[in-house]
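[Discussion] Sanity-checking designs against the backbone

I'm trying to build intuition for which residues belong where. Below is a C-alpha cell string of 102 positions. I'd appreciate it if someone posts a full sequence so I can compare it with mine line by line.
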C-alpha cells in the first residue's frame, strides 16, 4: 500500500515591508518579532487538527525556534490531498491576515 507524506515549514520574512505593524513591531529582535504571529498560526492549526474527524490521515503540528512544522501523512491519495490543501488554505488565510498589502 502506498504512503503519502508532506512536511511543511512555515516561517516569516521579517524584512517584508507590507505587514501588520501590530504583529511585527520594528523595535524588537527577530526572535521576539516572530513569537506572536507564529504562535497565532500554530494555535489555529492545532485547533483545526483537533476539531477535524479522522480522514485516514495523520496530521501533526509543532513549533520550533522561528518556524512551525506541519506534517501530514496518509495512505489514501484523495484524502491526503484534501487534507493537505485544506491546511495550505488555512495557512494562506492566516498569512494574508498578517501581511496586509497597501
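Best answer:
Here's mine. Compare freely.
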Amino acid at each position: 500500500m502506498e504512503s503519502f507524506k508532506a512536511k511543511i515549514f512555515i516561517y516569516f520574512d521579517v524584512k517584508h515591508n507590507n505587514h501588520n505593524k501590530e504583529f511585527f513591531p520594528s523595535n524588537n529582535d527577530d526572535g521576539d518579532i516572530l513569537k506572536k504571529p507564529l504562535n497565532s498560526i500554530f494555535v489555529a492549526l492545532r485547533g483545526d487538527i483537533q476539531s477535524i474527524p479522522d480522514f485516514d490521515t495523520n496530521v501533526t503540528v509543532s513549533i520550533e525556534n522561528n518556524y512551525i512544522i506541519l506534517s501530514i501523512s496518509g495512505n489514501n491519495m484523495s484524502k491526503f490531498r484534501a487534507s493537505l490543501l485544506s491546511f495550505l488554505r488555512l495557512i494562506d488565510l492566516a498569512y494574508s491576515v498578517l501581511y496586509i498589502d497597501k
